[in-house]
């Protein structure tokens, strides 16, 4: 008997082979925590460690399986196929994958919804608000209530902000976003139900670019050439590596939530 059903079963190892359970003699399959146990009609017991079992081919007529043995194979990722008396396959079971849908797949399905473009714009506005809230917290000693309200109207609702930093820095930011999207298997664009283009790379870049400019302060005065710009961006991206991750995590959650409503 399995004492802990949540414990991960051993996985098939190098050299694992198929286990064939057939013949004319009745058999019963049970298990321990690490092996399948086959008992024949004469009470003879054979033990097959999971690390040596790649898959199982079992007779439907002479082999009885216990539920715990089936569950053990599923947790170990070992598929089982049943053959009838004529040797024809009558069915198979496979391990249920626990992986959630990839971000790329979720975003594609989300964008294709009838309201996909609208939801995407709502997400962008929410991320602009989050960016602004973090900016206010970081500069709480200098941001006045009037400045907060004015900046919120301009940036959150109109997507406008004052650019203090030189344009070459934005291209470095876009290159950074492109590399991160590639590492997550994401395309730079999403397409709506009527082939509306949603430029994910540009929009994420704008979020980071706005954050850089909101907090630029005197940094803008220190950028004199491309080398200085590169050094500045590398320092900023190292200190704020979580910024893009937060946007992508929120995008994933938003898309998943929409897909289940």
Structure write-up:
With 261 residues, the protein is α/β, with parallel strands linked by helices. The chain has two domains: 17-93, Ribosomal Protein L15, Chain: K, domain 2; 103-259, Four Helix Bundle (Hemerythrin (Met), subunit A). Helix content is 48%, strand content 18%. It contains nine helices and ten strands. The chain has helices spanning 67-76, 103-111, 116-138, 145-157, 167-183, 200-214, 219-222, 226-239, 241-259; strands at 17-21, 27-31, 35-40, 45-49, 53-59, 63-65, 80-83, 89-93, 189-191, 197-199. A hairpin with a 3-residue loop joins strand 2 and strand 3 (35-40). Helix 2 (103-111) crosses helix 9.
CATH topology of the largest domain: Four Helix Bundle (Hemerythrin (Met), subunit A)
Distance between the termini: 41 Å
Quaternary organisation of the protein chains: single chain
Number of strands: 10
Low-confidence stretches: 1-6
Structural class: alpha/beta
Largest sheet: 4 strands, mixed
Series of secondary-structure elements, N-terminal to C-terminal? EEEEEEHEEHHHHEEHHHH
Query: Strand portion, in percent?
Result: 15-25%
**What is the mean predicted local confidence, pLDDT?**
85
Helix tally equals 9
Question: Structurally, how many domains make up the residues?
Answer: 2
Helical amount: 40-55%
The strands making up the biggest β-sheet line up spatially as 1-5-7-8
Shape: elongated
CATH architecture of the largest domain: Up-down Bundle
């Amino acid at each position: 008997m399995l004492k802990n059903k949540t414990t991960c079963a051993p996985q098939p190892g190098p050299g694992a082979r198929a286990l064939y359970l057939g013949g004319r003699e009745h058999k019963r399959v049970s298990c321990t925590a690490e092996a399948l146990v086959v008992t024949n009609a004469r009470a003879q017991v054979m033990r097959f460690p999971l690390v040596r079992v790649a898959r199982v081919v079992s007779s439907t007529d002479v082999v009885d399986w216990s539920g715990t043995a089936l569950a053990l194979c599923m947790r170990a990722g070992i598929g089982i196929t049943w053959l009838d008396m004529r040797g024809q396959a009558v069915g198979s079971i496979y391990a249920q994958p626990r992986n959630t849908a990839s971000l790329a797949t979720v975003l594609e399905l989300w964008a294709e919804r009838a309201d996909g473009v609208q939801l995407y714009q709502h997400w962008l506005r929410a991320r602009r608000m989050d960016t602004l809230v973090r900016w206010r917290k970081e500069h709480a000693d200098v941001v006045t209530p009037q400045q907060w309200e004015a900046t919120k109207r301009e940036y959150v609702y109109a997507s406008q902000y004052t650019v203090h930093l030189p344009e070459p820095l934005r291209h470095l930011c876009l290159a950074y976003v492109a590399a991160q999207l590639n590492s997550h298997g994401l395309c730079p664009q999403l397409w709506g139900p009527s082939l509306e283009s949603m430029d994910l790379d540009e929009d994420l870049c704008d979020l980071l670019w706005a954050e850089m400019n909101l907090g630029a302060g005197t940094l803008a005065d220190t950028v004199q050439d491309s080398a200085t710009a590169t050094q500045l961006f590398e320092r900023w991206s190292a200190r704020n590596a979580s910024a893009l991750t937060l946007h992508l995590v929120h995008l994933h959650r938003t898309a998943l939530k929409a897909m289940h409503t």
